[in-house]
Task: structure prediction
Amino acid sequence: MAQDATLVVNEIFVSIDGEGKTAGMLTTFVRLAGCNLRCAWCDTAYALKKEQGTPMAVSDVVAAVTTRSVTLTGGEPLEQSAAPELVRQLMAKGIDVNVETNGSRDTAPLLALPQADSHLIITLDWKLPASRMEAQMHRPSFAALREQDVLKFVVASVADLERAYAVLDELQPRSLVYFSPVFGAIEPVVLVNALRSRHESGHDVSRLRVQLQLHKIIWHPEERGV
Result:
């Protein structure tokens, strides 16, 4: 991939990461425009289409990064062919990259990059029934999850939660697993109680986490660039 490859960028800003393994860490968010899915509860409708972004050279995106950590998100970042080149260049500078991807795309090009073992986290969503996108999941990407990666379930209902645990039993991932409630759709305590019940039934829950979206607690849920 040429160094002047182009990405369509929705926004770049510095804030704390609001969720996942790097929650609370100051990071540079690089949000790419365009997504192949249309989740029923999507909270980033402003980045679903390529027309909602601005073309930028990969080198210019790298130059805009001011932190030692980057969260690459979307839209769906792996919809853009130059995304792995961006990740490669960032890691070559010693920057840690957390790629948030929607579960429908092949993560193998990221895993093949130099320094992927030391500088890359893949946060991979399994879309549950309420999203209406579960049929689009790319199973080989879930099988390839490493210990340092994250499997994320965005939960909108009790039925979603039950399905998440069924998927978890099937996949048996090595990664950390995060359960995130859809804001305003299900009370977080439901996820906590389910985790407690799983523990009481004899399951190992040491790699399972319940998370809230910090940015929606600190700022207004609809605020951009935070």
Observations:
- The chain has eight helices and nine strands.
- The radius of gyration is 17 Å.
- The beta strands are 6-16, 26-32, 54-57, 69-73, 96-101, 120-126, 150-155, 176-181, 208-210.
- The longest strand covers residues 6-16.
